[in-house]
Amino acid sequence: GSDSIVTTALKGCVGIGITDPDTELEVAGTIKASTHSDAIVIGSPTTVKWKMGVYGGNDLFFRDSSNNTKLSILNGGNVGIGTTNPIADLHVNGDVQIGSSVSPNAYGALQVNQTSNVDEEGIAILSASAGRSMRIWVDETKSYINSGNGGSGDLILNEGAGNVGIGTTSPTARITLADHTTAAGGIKFRTASSSVSLWSSGS
Known about the structure:
Layout: E1 5-8, E2 13-16, E3 25-27, E4 40-43, E5 48-55, E6 59-64, E7 69-73, E8 79-81, E9 90-92, E10 96-98, E11 110-112, E12 123-126, E13 133-138, E14 143-147, E15 154-158, E16 163-166, E17 175-177, E18 187-190, E19 195-198
Parallel strand pairs: 2-3, 8-9, 10-11, 16-17
Antiparallel strand pairs: 1-2, 4-5, 5-6, 6-7, 7-8, 12-13, 13-14, 14-15, 15-16, 18-19
């Protein structure tokens, strides 16, 4: 019946609720551990490699052989990596690497390794209604900041020459404006009651 225990001698397999187990232990149903802590232990007959169980309250922890908690899932839904008390939906206590394994975290605690030098490969921040976005990415010579969804130009940080471009990808001075021939494309200084604009009438 469905509640039977079957041993397959030739294969050395045990089945619970199943008549043809094809692994060392196969259960057709639910497994319940009455001991919450160390409910599942993975390792060799003499060495513990990993342990998983419910510790303390109703929090699920994954621990290594030295009882260091590597991953925690709290009863409230927060997930922690390297912490047993995650304070957000995902809380990482340590570095984060996104993308390939090249130069792991050599440039910061949060490192994004792009697969190509386009804005979709960098970091994006999207507004609540998806009406506005900001993207940050790099190529081999410049760093880009773009306010998308209506903005046609980028803010360029040209590290090698120390130049900044607004609306241009080739800044030739410390600050280069793409459209500097009109008041709208120049620089405006404002006070509470007045403003002054600077722009160039020539090239």
